[in-house]
Amino acid sequence: MYFAALLARTEDGWEASDMELDDVESLSDLIDLARSASVDDDTVVALIEQEDTWFGVVRVDGEEDPRYYVSNASAASRSSYGSMLTDELLGKDDEDDELDELDLDGTEDGEGEVITSYSDGGSAERNEEDDADADDGHDVRAGAEPAPAGPLGDPRLLDDLGVSHKQLMTLDGDALSEIADSLGATEVLEAVR
After folding, report:
1. Mean per-residue pLDDT for 75-100?
2. Rg, the chain, Cα only
3. Would you call 2 helix, strand, or coil by DSSP?
4. Straight-line distance from the first to the last Cα atom of the chain, in angstroms, rounded to the nearest whole number
5. To 5 degrees, how large is the angle CA 50–CA 186–CA 69?
6. What are the E-state strand segments in the chain?
7. Residue 85: which of 188, 2, 159 has the closest Cα?
8. pLDDT at 142 over 70
């Protein structure tokens, strides 16, 4: 179960709104949603949490590039919304996924040997029987990095708002409430929870 909310900074403090994740299919959708919640192009903080397993923070300041932080990248990478964040932070590109789906193995009918490149620069020949035995949970594309078991992203993204990077990196449990408390937005966040 996910909880997600947007906190938009205003002249009078923070406004919170419940973020409907059903409408979010990509990271671009999430960023657009955050920008639409902005008051006068001021800061918007998107908070996402999955049952105390991991939390993510996305900060959008007007048209500037968004900044991201994920508390536990390994856990987040195994969830649909968390993987959007970890893929962005690890430099995984949707275009790479589309290229992987194309049949570019060099044979006329798409069958036969496939040569796969590994990140160590070597290659290994595989056939379709080997593919069936392969571990489906690992990305063996060249340059693919596994998500680390700890934090990933910019831990300083909330420093100027009252949440130090040290505090952010040590949060667990009800992290979103602690972030909201430090921002002075506890009441508005609890109103949408």
Report:
1. 80
2. 20
3. strand
4. 13
5. 45
6. 2-10, 13-18, 43-50, 54-61, 67-70, 114-117, 123-126, 152-153
7. 2
8. no
Non-local (6+) Cβ contacts of 77 within 8 A are 83, 86, 87, 147
- For residue 19, the SS3 value is coil
More confident residue, 89 or 172: 89
Contact yes or no for 42/64 (Cβ under 8 A): no
Cα–Cα distances in angstroms (integers) from residue 142 to residues 14, 68, 101, 161, in the given order: 44, 24, 15, 39
SS3 28: helix
Specify the amino acid at residue 107: T
Instruction: Provide the whole-model pTM.
Output: 0.73
Burial class (CB in 10 A: 0-12, 13-18, 19+), 55: buried
pLDDT in tens, 45-76: 999 999 889 999 999 999 999 999 999 999 99
Residues paired with 69 in a beta bridge:
57, 153
In three-state secondary structure terms, 134 is coil
Cα(172)–Cα(71) distance, integer angstroms: 8
The answer to whether the CB of 141 falls within 8 A of the CB of 151 is no
Burial of 100 (0-12, 13-18, 19+ CB in 10 A): exposed
